[in-house]
Amino acid sequence: MEFESNVGGRDRLVRAALAVVLTIVAIRSLRGGNRTVGLLAGVGALGLGFNAVTCFCGLNRVLGVDTARE
């Protein structure tokens, strides 16, 4: 599957950093017994990690935002 790049530069770095932070929140929440927060943080981490790795964001495409050209 091939996506047209629409995430780049600072936006990509911020998404990767947020994915790491949300991963930590998810692990701590799940270990602490708070499954709702853990699962939501985990899903968010997966989404942002996908965006950072593939340089593609579906929401950016729908809204017409392209930070890859900055």
Topology at a glance:
Layout: H1 9-31, H2 35-54, H3 58-63
Helix pairs in contact: 1-2
InterPro entries: YgaP-like_TM
Protein name: DUF2892 domain-containing protein
Domain Inner membrane protein YgaP-like transmembrane: 5-69
Q: How many distinct domains?
A: 1
End-to-end gap: 25 Å
Order of helices and strands: HHH
Query: Could you give the count of β-strands?
Result: 0
Could you tell me the mean pLDDT? 94
SS field, number of helical segments: 3
State the share of residues found in helices, binned by percent.
over 70%
Q: What structural class should be given to the helix and strand makeup?
A: mainly alpha
> What is the rounded Rg?
14 Å
Pfam families: YgaP-like_TM (PF11127)
Organism: Haloplanus aerogenes
Protein name: DUF2892 domain-containing protein
InterPro entries: YgaP-like_TM (IPR021309)
